[in-house]
Amino acid sequence: MRNAPTILHLDMDAFYASVEQASKPSLRGKAVVVGGLGPRGVVATASYEARAFGVHSAMPMAQARRLAPNAAYLVPRFSLYRAVSEQVMTLLRELSPLVEPLSLDEAFVDLAASGAAEDAESARRAGLRLRADIRTVTGLTGSVGLAASKMLAKIASEQAKPDGLVLIEPGTERALLGPLPVRTLPGVGPATGDHLRRVGITTVDELAEAGEDELVRLLGKAHGQALYAMALARDERPVVAEREAKSVSVEDTYDVDIHDRPRIGLEVRRLADRCVRRLREAGLSGRTIVLKVRRYDFSTLTRSETLRGPTDDPAVVREAAERLLESVDTTGGVRLLGVGVSGLADYTQEDLFAQASSRAEPVPEEAVAEPVAVSREPVLPHWRAGQDVRHAEHGHGWVQGSGVGRVTVRFETPQSPPGRIRTFLVTDPALEPADPLPLVVTAPAP
Predict the structure, then answer these.
(1) Closest to 8 in 3D by CA, of 170, 132, 156
(2) Domain UmuC spans what residues (predicted)?
(3) Catalytic site residue 106?
(4) Neighbour-count burial of 213, counting CB atoms closer than 10 A to its CB (0-12 exposed, 13-18 middle, 19+ buried)
(5) Does residue 435 have a known ligand-binding role?
(6) Which of these is catalytic: 49, 100, 106, 319?
(7) What is the pLDDT of residues 310-338, one digit of tens each?
């Protein structure tokens, strides 16, 4: 392990919720919950104000609403989150060429790789400068941990939350780790934690005292040896600059189980198109098409088909996903569908993929009867809470809620004071979806 705290771990504070608060002045300092808003939705992120009521990530949204009924509940805006994340990652790459992103809001940085830090004092200065730069560029806060290993840097950033910096001096690791609960260590989830608790091991000190042989007996060789090493503050894992994506996938969970087979087919085709859009945005293609189906009884099935070469052709992916669906029994209904592509490559062999079927197979009459009937009904716009909109007269705003044929919009921007609320018919022609606005407006160069 290193003799200086030159590994930095950054974790943005309540990232999705903080972006929403920065984007919507009326929500600053208020409880905000981001996630799926349907009956089966879960919390993606809760602001610290919402956490005070007991709301946390991965909690069912229905439970969150009971705990914090007056919070703002918003759908995620991933395009904005990705844009802000890229601004943060750019700042990290300016610190060092060795940046290991873990998610949109979290990353390790090796400060020694670029000479940005050589000892505790220079590491602290680098961390403070990074936090200030993040605030300037994005308007958001991030918590920084500095230590001689990845494990300890992550623990330090957790202790720094929110909006702080914690540095663990080399030589103090064992004293810091000792009293912490075993769940603090990577790889100790609820099941392992419960297993250890049943034999009287609840802290990292007790884990170290148990000894390697006992932990191997309790948890198996690989897990036992790894946990014993971490209990002694040993972690030699390097910061890895590139984490190669293994697959690209999309999925949807439905508020009500889908029973109609033609509708399931339509959903699979829609998911295939979304998946291909993500592939193309990443400049990738793939060979293996994967279909995921979670049925009414929570049983989950996956089917896959490997093509002759990589593709990003939406027709090819759609056709493969439809073929996979034919092998799945959806009697009783489905609650989740997903389409993914793996075996990724950064090129496409177009000549191999004139395999999008040119054959026009007849479609059974019953398969089109329902969509034709539905198409005669007027299709109303679907406005979702948190969605960006623009009104021809009132400008940029966001949807606070909709129902009974009306939509309520608050008109404000990241740089404005809290805005006014107005209500419109959902069919108002002056109201249209809009792209998110940047959180911070940079002045043009002179």
Answers:
(1) 156
(2) 7-189
(3) yes
(4) exposed
(5) no
(6) 106
(7) 888 899 999 999 999 998 989 889 989 99
